[in-house]
Amino acid sequence: MLRYVAPLAIFLVIGVFFFFGLGRNPNDVPSPLVGKRVPTFSLPSVTDPQDVVSTETLAGHVSLVNVWGTWCVECRHEHAFLLELKRAGVPIYGLNVRDERAAAIDWLDRLGNPYVSSGFDPENKAGIEWGVTGAPETFLIGSDGTILFKHISPLTPRVWQRDFLPLLREHCGPADCPFLAAVGGG
Amino acid sequence: MRILASLVVLWVAFPGGFTAHAQEGFDDPVLDARYRALSHEIRCPKCLNETIAESKAPVAAELRREIRRLLAEGASDDEIKTFLSSRYGEFVLYRPRLTPTTFVVWAAPFVLLAVGALVFWRILAARGNQPLDEEPPP
Q1: Is A117 strand, coil or helix?
Q2: Pairing with B65, which of A3, A23, A30, B115 sits 20 to 30 Å away (CA)?
């Protein structure tokens, strides 16, 4: 009996591992920063070097932190949706990495600026603190300064519905997130 | 034979394998050796199973830069690994440290070896009970 059941059992175990393992995106490495406080960073703004984007900028309200660069094709792809979120009232902060200031300003002028402000980080130094590997990446920040979620690859309406909205509903009410109804989370 | 000879020549010429950063490093041989060892032990978080020493991805260059900075500041190897894994996850350590979560990874080979030994022993034991001489008695 065992001689027939054992190979079948082994096949099923391997099958289950492959079924779940092969369907996963190998670039989707879980960030150890999720659940932790926003890292300490301070950057000059892309548009105004006198202006500063820092850990304090993100304190006290729910927001998105979006990693972008003009060299990043996928960022161009998600840009329209970021603008849509901005129109709905979602505060988005940019982390502009490995870029040139003039190119970044030109991008925002041409395509529209979805960001409250963007930190300018040409050498990805603050990005290292955020565990940034590339762009686009989007973090959801809670009002207590905790990183609630990290998404690697473009932020699409589907990802927003699936991953961001449930967390927003859980972590903020109409007082913290007046935009909630406008982005489909009401 | 000729191919083998060229492989040997290549291996002698580049004993550490090809690295993306041959010219980076330290003048101090001790620091330099630690830098090379560390960069061969950290996985590039963006590029599927390449060390940051081999990878040409921007993030690999940036992580090498951070390692050089921390080494120059006098950080220990362990502090540097903690710095990287607290930002990029245990994933970046090619030799994961023994923690409750990585325990399975470390224990699995020994558990599998034990299971294999058990199966082997049981098969042997079962065979041992059979007579060697299978010929029917006359």
Answers
A1: strand
A2: A30
